[in-house]
Structure formats: structure tokens, C-alpha cells
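Predict structure. Chain length: 204.
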Amino acid sequence: MIDIISVFVLGTAFSFIGSIPPGTLNVSVLQLGLEKKINTALRFALAVSIVEYPYAWIAVEFESLISRSPWIAANLQLITAVVITTLGIFTVWSARKPSNFSVKFNESGFRRGLILSVLNPMAIPYWTGATAYFKAQGWIDLSTQPLIHSYVFGTSVGAMLLLTLFTFMAARLAPYIQQNRYIKMAPGFIMLALGLYAFARYIF
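Prediction complete.
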């Protein structure tokens, strides 16, 4: 029982920490929070945490295979670069000239979170590397299915906690910047920068 709790706590803690750097998902949550769409942002966060579970499970189950195949991580990097750049362009464009599609997409918290999470598979190499490190340090034992699922469930909980925190932090700032159009475009520019950085890492 102690081992199950310890792997859950480890998964939760490192999922929380790993979700802090700017990325497609947390930037999207910040945008929703700044627009004071709390319920939409929470549904988005729930979808993200649900997708985190199978991606983390894949990373744990196939850790040795993925670790021995750098080209898998490289291809995931390319996919992520394409997705983030595309979403960045879409976000900036929709902030300048909202269309019916962009409005519906932005208002759909759960479906939007589900789509963006599935199209952003970088959780797999992250959890592959983290799990390999934890094992090498002797911090975790994932020799049984209950231990694996406790660890993976922790990754979902950690993502949900961090995105929920981002939502309410952004909502507190919203009254000061809500009417600024450039602030609404900021997430798009951040995604574009991240996408270009991902392309650069893939190429060079």
C-alpha cells in the first residue's frame, strides 16, 4: 500500500512540475482563464488529464523500446512542432477575425482539450525519460499493474491540479487585461514561438 501511494505521489508531483513550462495545453488554459471562461477551462483541463493517462501508460509500458529508438522521439517532436505552429497561427487569426468555427472551437472546453491533447504527444517522451530516471535512481517500483496504474493516475491528477491552478490565477488577472486584444493574441504568439523552437530542435 505504501508503494502504491509513493508512486502516485511521485507521478502527481512530476506531472505538476512538468506541466509548468509554456506549452500548447497550459497556454490554452491561461487564455480561457483570462477570458473568465472558468467552466470551459476546467472541462479543458479534465480532457487533458484524461489523455495524459494513456500517454503516460504507453511511456511506462514501452519505455525500453522508446529509449532505444531516438527516431520515435524525433518524430513526436516534428508532430508537435507542426501542431503547435498551426494552432498558434489559428489562435492569432481567430483573435483578429473571429469566425463561427473558431468561436465554437474556443467555447468547447472538453472537446478542444481532447483534440489538442491527442495531437500533442510529447507527454510520451517526457514520461519515458522521467520513468527511466526514477527507475535508475531506485525511486519507484513498477513491477505490478496496480503500481503502474497508481503512478499513471498520479500523472493525470498532477496535470489537472496544475491546469486548474493556472485557470484561477489567470481569472484573477482577467479584469485588468480582458479588453486588450493583444493580450488575447499573446497565447497564439507563444505557441508560434514554441512551434518554431520545436522545428529548430528537430532540424538542428
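Summary: The chain has one domain: 2-203.
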